[in-house]
Design a protein that fits this description.
heterotetramer, A mainly alpha (270), B alpha/beta (484), C mainly alpha (266), D alpha/beta (299), C: 266 residues, mainly alpha, 7 helices, extended, D: 299 residues, Rossmann fold, 2 domains, 11 helices
Chain lengths: 270, 484, 266, 299
C-alpha cells in the first residue's frame, strides 16, 4: 500500500491519458479537462507546504542566528504584508484605521516567530493574542476598508499594486537586466579559440554580433549581414531540428519508463 | 414561496422571448445602409455541409461556391453571412441561459457591462431581490431545466420550417468558400449546438449597400462526436512501435545482454564533483530548474537527484536544493529522503535540505545567487527546465568558483550553458543521464531503444527526401503527416 | 505626479541600484533587495493564485453546497475529489503519515507523463520528421547567391545537417570511422547553431539594460519637472529626495573605494 | 605570484568587474551623449522611404497602427519616423488601429508627433537639404484617426468600398463627411499607399484582403521575430517594403535624417556589442600569446 499504490496510480492515469489523446469524444474531453483541474488544485494546496518551508527556513535562520539572519525578517514581513494587502481593499475615500490593522498583524507575525523560537513561549503567545485582538477590533469597527477572500477586489488595492509595481517589478526587471553584463563576461571567459569546436562557436557568434555594424570597409557590412542571417536560418535550424527530435524521443522514453514502473527514481526508489 | 419565485422568472422570460428572437436575427445588419437602393447580388451556390471529422461533435463544416459577383465591380460581394435555423425551443432556452448568466453576475458581484434600461438590466432588477441561497436555488433549477429541455431539441427541430427562426452565426470576408461552424459542447452556453439533431444552414452574400441574396437552404444535417481521431494514426504507430522497442530491449537487458554505451563527459564529472565537494568540505547545490513536476525534464531531473543524493549521503557532504515549485519541492524531498535511507544514513537527512523559495522566476534567481555567493558550493548541478535565468545562474556560479554541470531540454538556453558551464548535457542527454548514473542495465536497455528509433527516423527521412523529389512521393510523405 | 507616487518611484530606483550593486559584490543592499523580493513575490503569488485559480476552479464550483454536508450537496460536488487530494498533500506536515502524500504525487506524475507521451511524439518527432521530407528546389539550387536561405542548397544543407547532428546523439555506438566523421560534422553544425543564437541574443539582453536606463531617466525627469506636461504638484521636495538618493549612492561608492585602498595598504 | 604575470596573462584573466564597469560606462555614455551612428540601410527599407518621399504635397497615406502596447518598444519608433517624415512633407494621413488595445496608444502617439512638428527643422537626405517650417497639425486637415473596429479582415475589405461603411465617424466622434480632408476621399483609390505596422496576423489580412484585392502599394513594419516569414511576399511583389524590428526603424530614421528612439537604442546596442567583441578579442590575444610563450618555454 505504501510503496506500490503510488506506482499503480501512475500507471493507471498515465495509460488513461495516453489513450485519451486519440479519443476526441466529448466524454473523454470532459475527463481530460477535469483531471487538468485536479493537477492545478493539487498544486495550489501544495503551495501551503512551500510557504511553510519558506517560513520554516527563515525562522530557523533567526533562531540559530545564522549568517545574515536579520534579513530573514525582511522576507517574512514582505511575504505577509503582501498577503494582507491582497485580501483587503478600500471602500471609502480614506484608509481610516487600516495602517493600525496592518501594523497589528505585523506585530502578530513578529510575536509568532518569537513564540516558536523563544523559551518564554507564554509571554510571546500572550502578546500575539493581544495583537490579534487589536487587529480584530480594528477590522470590526472600521468601515472604511474591508476584507475580501471570495472576490478579487484585493488585487486592485493600491498598496498591493504599488508593491507589485515599485518593489517587485524593478527588482525582477533588474535581475533580468543583469544578463546584459553576464552575457558579456561569459563571452569573454569562454570564447577562446582552444579547439575547432570552440572556434566555430566563437566565429559564428562574432559574425552574428556584427550584423548591423556600419564601420567596415568594402561592402563587408552587407556580406556580414547576409552571413548572419544564413547562420541563423540554415545551420541553426538544422541543429534545432536534430535536438528537438532527440528530446522528443527522450521525453517519450522517460515517460514510458515512468508509467511502466521501470524507472522509479522520481519517488526515491531506484 | 419558491414556486412563486420561479413563476415570476418564467413569466419574465415569456414576455421577453419574442423581442429576443428578432434581436438575434438582425445582428448581421450592423453595416447596412439601404437595402433597396441597388440590385441584389447573385447568391452563393451549391451550399453543402458535413459533420466535422475527428472532433468531439457539435461542429459542422460548410462549403459553398462563391457568388458570381464576388470579386470586383460596383455590385461586388463584401462578405458572407452565415445563418442557422433553430427551433423556437432553442430561443426559449437561450433566454434562460441569459438569466443564468445574470444570476451568476449577481452572485459574483460583477454587474458591470449591463446597459441601463436593457433587457438584461430589467432581469437584473428582478433577480437582485433574492438572497444568495435563493439565487443558488434558482440557478440550479434553471440549469436542470435547460438540461432537460435540451433533450427535446432533436425532436423540436423536426418541425422545420415551422416554429423556429434563422439565427445569425458569423460573417466571413468575400473570397471565403468554407466555414467551420464550431458550436459549444457546453449546454449552458448560448453557442450550444446539439448533437444528433437536424441542423439547417443558409449563407447570404452581402454587398456594400447591405443588399443580400440567400443561398439555397442546406439541411438537414447532424453533428456527432467520434471515438477515434484518424488524423493521429501516425502517432499511434510511432508510440506503439517505440513502446515495443523499449520493452524488447529492457527485457533483453534484464536477461543479461551486454549493452555498450559511449561515455558522456558530463555524467562522469558528477562523481568527481561529489568527491571534490567532500574534500573541500563545501556543499553541493542542485537546481531543479523552473519546470513544474508536470515537465518530463523535471521528472528526469528527480531521478538524477536521487542518484546524486545517494552518493552525497555516502560521502557525508551537504546538499542544497532550493526549489521553485511547491510540488517539485515535495517530490524532491521524498527523493532525497529515500536516497539517504538507501545509503543507510536516514539520520543525516534534514527536511530543509530541499526548501521552497518562491514562484517568481527572477526572485528565485536572486535567492539562488545569494546561496551561491554565501555558501560557496563546490559543485553546482543544473538539471531540468531553464529559461532566461540560465546564464545568470551559471555566471554567478563561475564567479563563486564552483564546478558546474548542466543539462536542459530548453533549446534556446543550451548555448548559454555550453558557454558558462564546465560540462553540459545537450537536450536528449539529460534524459539519458539517469540511466548512465544508475549503471542499471535495464535502464541502459531503453537507451538502446532510443538509438534504434533514431536510426529508423534517419532512414525514413532519407527515403522521404528521395521520394519527395518525384511526383508519386506524396503518397509516402503523407503517411507521416499529423493534422491538428 | 503626486509626491507619494514620486516616493514610490524613488523606492523602485533605489531597489534597481541595490540589485545592480550585485555586479560589484555581495553587499547589504543586495541582500536586502534579494530577501525582500523573495518574500514579496511569494506573497504576491499566494494572492494571485488564490484569486485566480483556487476561487474560480474550486470554491466557486462548491459555493452552493453547505459545509456541514461537506459540500456534497453542491451542484458540482465532484470537485471535492481534487480538494481531498490536495489535503492529502498536507500529510507531509506529519512525520508518521507523510507517505500518504505519495498518492496525489503519483497521480500528478501519472497524468503529466501520460499527456506527454503522444503529445511530444506528435509535436517533436512526427511533425519534425514530416517537415524534413521536402521537395528540394533544384531549379534554384544556388539561388543566385550561396548565402540565400531559401535556395535548394540551403534546404539540402539543413537536411544533411539535421541528420548528422542526430547521429551525434547516438549513445550506443562509438564515434569512430565514417560514423565518427558524420558525428563530428553533426557537432560542428550544433556548435555553429549555438554560437549564432548566442550572438543573436546579445541585442535582446542589452535592450533590457536600456530599459532600466530609461526608467532611471524618467525618474530624473520627474524629479526636475522636465516633462512636457507640467506637474501641478511640483515642489522642492522632489529635488530633495533626488539629491538624497544621489548623495547616498555616491557616499557608498566613496566608502567602498576608501576601504578598498585601506585593505591594500595593510 | 603577481610579478610573474605578464600582460598577456592579465589579458586572459581580467576580473569580470572591469568588463562590467567598462560596459556600464560605455552604455551610459552612449545613451546620454548626443551623437549619431551611421546605419547600413537595406533595400527593403529604402524602397519604403523612397516611395513615401516621392509623394507630392497633399497626397494621402493610410498608416495602420495595428500593434498593441506589448510590441511598443519595437514598432513605436517606426510610427514616429514614418509619420513625422510624412507630415513634414505635408502629406495627409489616415490612421487606423485594428488591434483591440491599440487606439489609446495610437492616439497618444499622434499627439506626441503633432507636438514635435511645431518646431522648425532641417533635414539632409538624398544629398539635398530640406527645410521645414514648424506648423500646427490639425485633426481633420492633416490627419484622420478612424480608431478600432473588430473583425479586421472585414474592415480591411470594407475600407476598399468606402471608409464610411465601417467608420461613419472618426475616433473622436466627428462624422467623416464633416472632416475637410475626407472630402472626396472614398476608398483606397484615393490613397497613395498603405503602411501597416503590426506585431501579429493582421499583416496577413492586409496582404490577402487588402493588397490582394485592391492592389495598392503595401509597406510593412514588423517585429524582429516576424520578419523572415514575410520575405517571400517581398519577392513576389505583393509587399513593396519591409522594416524589421528596432534595426528597421533605425534604418528609416537614418534615411530620413531624423534620428529618434530607434537610433538612440541602436547607438547603445552597437557600442555594447563592440565592448563585448573587444573583450573576446583581448582574451584570445592573451590566450594565443601566452600559449606561444608556454610552448617556447617548454622547448
Amino acid at each position: 500500500m505504501k510503496r506500490q499504490l503510488p506506482f499503480l496510480l501512475v500507471f493507471i492515469f498515465g495509460a488513461f491519458m495516453t489513450i485519451q489523446y486519440y479519443v476526441p469524444h466529448e466524454s473523454s474531453e470532459f475527463v481530460y479537462t477535469f483531471l487538468l483541474d485536479w493537477t492545478m488544485i493539487i498544486g495550489i494546496f501544495a503551495l501551503a507546504l512551500g510557504i511553510w518551508s519558506l517560513y520554516h527556513v527563515s525562522v530557523d535562520k533567526i533562531q540559530h542566528k545564522k549568517e545574515n539572519w536579520i534579513y530573514s525578517y525582511v522576507t517574512l514581513f514582505g511575504l505577509f504584508i503582501m498577503v494582507v494587502f491582497g485580501f483587503s481593499y478600500k471602500v471609502g475615500d480614506s484608509w481610516g484605521m487600516y495602517p493600525l490593522f496592518v501594523i497589528a498583524l505585523m506585530a502578530l507575525l513578529y510575536c509568532l516567530i518569537h513564540a516558536s523560537i523563544s523559551r518564554s513561549k507564554g509571554f510571546w503567545l500572550g502578546l500575539s493574542g493581544a495583537a490579534l485582538a487589536v487587529s480584530f477590533g480594528v477590522a470590526f469597527f472600521d468601515d472604511s476598508w474591508k476584507l475580501a477572500f471570495m472576490t478579487s477586489e484585493g488585487l486592485k488595492n493600491t498598496m498591493f499594486t504599488n508593491f507589485a509595481d515599485f518593489v517587485l517589478t524593478p527588482i525582477l526587471a533588474t535581475m533580468f537586466a543583469l544578463l546584459a553584463f553576464f552575457i558579456a563576461s561569459a563571452a569573454y571567459r569562454a570564447f577562446r579559440a582552444r579547439n575547432v569546436l570552440a572556434s566555430l562557436l566563437l566565429i559564428a557568434a562574432i559574425i552574428v554580433m556584427l550584423r548591423f555594424n556600419p564601420y567596415m570597409p568594402f561592402g563587408l557590412p552587407e556580406l556580414v549581414a547576409e552571413t548572419s542571417s544564413w547562420l541563423m536560418n540554415v545551420p541553426n535550424l538544422a541543429a534545432q531540428r536534430a535536438i528537438v527530435i532527440g528530446i522528443g524521443l527522450g521525453i517519450v522514453a522517460t515517460s514510458l519508463k515512468v508509467i511502466l514502473g521501470i524507472e522509479r527514481g522520481y519517488m526515491g526508489k531506484g | 414561496m419558491k414556486v412563486k419565485m420561479l413563476l415570476a422568472v418564467f413569466l419574465l422570460l415569456a414576455i421577453c422571448s419574442n423581442s429576443y428572437a428578432q434581436d438575434t436575427t438582425a445582428e448581421g445588419d450592423t453595416t447596412a445602409i439601404s437595402v433597396d437602393s441597388l440590385r441584389l447580388p447573385a447568391p452563393p451556390g451549391n451550399l453543402s455541409g458535413r459533420d466535422k471529422p475527428n472532433d468531439h461533435g457539435h461542429a459542422i463544416i460548410l462549403d459553398w461556391e462563391l457568388s458570381p459577383d464576388d470579386g470586383g465591380g460596383s455590385n461586388s460581394v463584401l462578405r458572407y453571412d452565415i445563418y442557422k435555423w433553430v427551433p423556437q425551443l432553442m430561443l426559449d432556452i437561450n433566454l434562460v441561459r441569459d438569466s443564468i448568466i445574470i444570476i451568476q453576475k449577481i452572485i459574483r458581484k460583477t454587474t458591470d457591462g449591463i446597459e441601463e434600461g436593457s433587457q438584461a438590466d430589467s432581469m437584473l432588477k428582478v433577480f437582485s431581490k433574492f438572497s444568495k441561497d435563493e439565487l443558488f436555488d434558482i440557478r440550479n433549477r434553471l440549469t436542470d431545466h435547460i438540461k432537460a429541455e435540451n433533450e427535446g431539441l432533436a425532436e423540436a427541430s423536426k418541425s422545420y420550417p415551422e416554429n423556429g427562426a434563422w439565427l445569425f452565426i458569423d460573417k466571413k470576408p468575400s473570397g471565403t468558400k468554407t466555414f467551420d461552424h464550431i458550436g459549444s459542447k457546453e449546454f449552458k452556453s448560448k453557442g450550444f449546438v446539439p448533437d444528433y439533431a437536424d441542423l439547417y444552414y443558409r449563407v447570404d452574400a452581402v454587398t456594400i449597400t447591405g443588399a443580400k441574396a440567400s443561398s439555397e437552404i442546406f439541411g438537414p444535417i447532424q453533428s456527432s462526436g467520434q471515438w477515434y481521431n484518424t488524423y493521429r494514426t501516425p502517432v499511434v504507430f510511432s508510440v506503439f512501435l517505440f513502446t515495443i522497442l523499449t520493452v524488447f530491449y529492457v527485457m533483453r537487458a534484464k536477461q543479461g545482454a551486454d549493452l555498450y554505451v559511449r561515455p558522456l563527459g558530463g555524467i562522469e564529472a558528477v562523481d568527481d564533483a561529489i568527491g571534490r565537494a567532500t574534500e573541500m568540505g563545501r556543499p553541493i547545490l542542485y537546481v531543479l530548474g523552473l519546470g513544474s513536476a508536470a515537465d518530463i525534464a523535471t521528472i528526469a531531473s528527480f531521478t538524477i537527484l536521487g542518484r546524486v543524493a545517494k552518493k552525497v549521503a555516502e560521502y557525508q557532504t551537504e546538499l542544497l536544493v532550493p526549489t521553485y515549485d511547491p510540488i517539485v519541492m515535495t517530490v524532491a524531498q521524498e527523493v532525497v529522503k529515500s536516497a539517504y535511507l538507501d545509503a543507510g544514513r536516514p539520520d543525516a537527512y534534514k527536511e530543509d535540505t530541499v526548501h521552497f523559495v518562491t514562484q517568481s522566476q527572477f526572485a528565485y534567481v536572486a535567492a539562488v545567487n545569494g546561496i551561491m555567493l554565501r555558501e560557496l558550493p563546490a559543485t553546482n548541478v543544473y538539471m531540468g527546465k531553464f529559461f532566461a535565468e540560465s546564464l545568470i545562474l551559471a555566471e554567478t556560479g563561475a564567479l563563486a568558483g564552483s564546478i558546474q554541470i548542466s543539462g536542459t531540454d530548453e533549446i534556446a538556453q543550451i548555448p548559454f550553458f555550453i558557454v558558462a558551464c564546465d560540462y553540459t548535457l545537450i537536450g536528449e542527454e539529460l534524459y539519458a543521464a539517469s540511466a548512465y548514473l544508475g549503471k542499471d542495465p535495464v535502464l541502459l536497455g531503453s537507451l538502446k531503444a532510443q538509438d534504434y528509433a533514431k536510426a529508423a527516423i534517419i532512414i525514413l527521412a532519407v527515403i522521404g527526401v528521395i521520394v519527395a523529389q518525384f511526383d508519386f512521393g506524396h503518397y509516402y510523405v503523407d503517411l507521416f503527416e499529423v493534422v491538428n | 505626479m503626486e509626491f507619494s507616487d514620486f516616493l514610490w518611484m524613488t523606492c523602485g530606483i533605489f531597489l534597481t541600484l541595490a540589485t545592480f550593486s550585485f555586479l560589484y559584490k555581495d553587499n547589504p543592499f543586495y541582500k536586502f533587495a534579494e530577501h525582500l523580493v523573495v518574500g514579496v513575490s511569494a506573497g504576491f503569488f499566494v494572492v494571485v493564485l488564490w484569486h485566480g485559480t483556487l476561487v474560480p476552479n474550486l470554491f466557486q464550483k462548491l459555493e452552493d453546497g453547505d459545509w456541514y454536508m461537506l459540500w456534497l450537496n453542491s451542484s458540482e460536488w465532484w470537485y471535492i475529489i481534487p480538494a481531498l487530494l490536495g489535503v492529502l498533500m498536507w500529510t507531509r506536515f506529519s512525520k508518521e503519515y507523510s507517505w500518504v502524500s505519495r498518492w496525489p504525487m503519483g497521480l500528478y506524475i501519472g497524468i503529466s507523463t501520460g499527456i506527454a507521451i503522444p503529445l511530444e511524439m506528435s509535436n517533436r518527432v512526427n511533425k519534425q520528421l514530416h517537415a524534413m521530407m521536402i521537395e528540394i528546389d533544384w531549379a534554384n539550387f544556388f539561388g543566385g547567391n550561396i548565402l540565400s536561405t531559401t535556395s535548394g542548397f540551403a534546404q539540402l544543407l539543413i537536411f544533411v545537417g539535421a541528420i548528422a547532428a542526430l547521429i551525434y546523439f547516438f549513445f550506443s555506438k562509438e564515434h569512430k570511422g565514417l560514423f565518427g566523421g558524420v558525428a563530428t560534422f553533426g557537432i560542428w553544425i550544433l556548435m555553429i547553431g549555438f554560437g549564432a543564437s548566442f550572438g543573436y541574443t546579445v541585442m535582446a539582453r542589452v535592450s533590457l539594460f536600456i530599459n532600466r536606463m530609461q526608467d532611471t531617466k524618467d525618474w530624473g525627469i520627474a524629479a526636475f519637472n522636465n516633462a512636457e506636461v507640467v506637474n501641478p504638484h511640483y515642489g522642492a521636495q522632489y529635488q530633495i529626495v533626488f539629491w538624497l538618493l544621489v548623495l547616498f549612492v555616491v557616499g557608498y561608492i566613496i566608502n567602498e573605494i576608501v576601504s578598498h585602498l585601506k585593505s591594500k595598504q595593510v | 605570484m603577481t610579478e610573474h604575470k605578464n600582460i598577456f596573462d592579465r589579458m586572459m584573466s581580467l576580473d569580470r568587474r572591469w568588463i562590467f564597469l567598462f560596459l556600464i560606462v560605455v552604455c551610459v555614455a552612449t545613451y546620454t551623449a548626443d551623437f549619431t551612428i551611421p546605419i547600413n540601410t537595406e533595400a527593403e527599407v529604402e524602397s519604403i522611404f523612397n516611395f513615401l518621399d516621392s509623394l507630392p504635397e497633399g497626397d494621402i497615406v493610410l498608416v495602420a497602427i495595428d500593434y498593441d502596447p506589448n510590441n511598443l518598444a519595437e514598432l513605436h519608433p517606426m510610427t514616429y519616423a514614418v509619420v513625422e517624415h510624412l507630415w513634414r512633407k505635408k502629406v495627409k494621413i489616415i490612421f487606423t488601429s485594428l488591434s483591440q488595445l491599440g487606439p489609446a496608444m495610437a492616439d497618444q502617439a499622434i499627439r506626441d508627433i503633432s507636438d514635435s512638428l511645431k518646431v522648425d527643422k532641417t533635414y539632409n537626405y538624398n544629398g539635398v537639404e530640406h527645410n521645414f517650417k514648424g506648423r500646427e497639425i490639425v485633426n481633420g486637415v492633416d490627419y484622420t484617426f478612424l480608431g478600432f473596429k473588430p473583425y479586421y479582415a472585414l474592415i480591411i475589405l470594407g475600407m476598399g468600398q468606402d471608409f464610411r461603411l465601417n467608420f461613419p465617424s472618426d475616433y473622436y466622434g466627428t462624422p467623416l463627411d464633416d472632416l475637410p480632408m475626407m472630402q472626396g476621399v472614398i476608398n483606397y483609390d484615393q490613397v497613395a499607399c498603405v503602411v501597416d505596422l503590426s506585431g501579429g496576423n493582421i499583416t496577413d489580412a492586409w496582404i490577402s484582403y487588402g493588397q490582394g484585392r485592391f492592389n495598392f502599394p503595401l509597406m510593412l513594419g514588423l517585429t524582429g521575430v516576424m520578419v523572415s516569414q514575410y520575405y517571400p511576399f517581398l519577392g513576389s511583389g505583393q509587399v513593396s517594403g519591409i522594416m524589421g524590428g528596432l534595426l528597421g526603424a533605425a534604418q528609416y530614421e537614418e534615411l530620413a535624417d531624423n534620428p529618434g528612439r530607434a537610433k538612440d537604442g541602436m547607438r547603445v546596442q552597437l557600442f555594447a556589442h563592440y565592448v563585448i567583441i573587444l573583450f573576446i578579442v583581448l582574451g584570445n590575444i592573451g590566450f594565443f600569446m601566452s600559449r606561444r610563450k608556454r610552448m617556447e618555454g617548454g622547448n
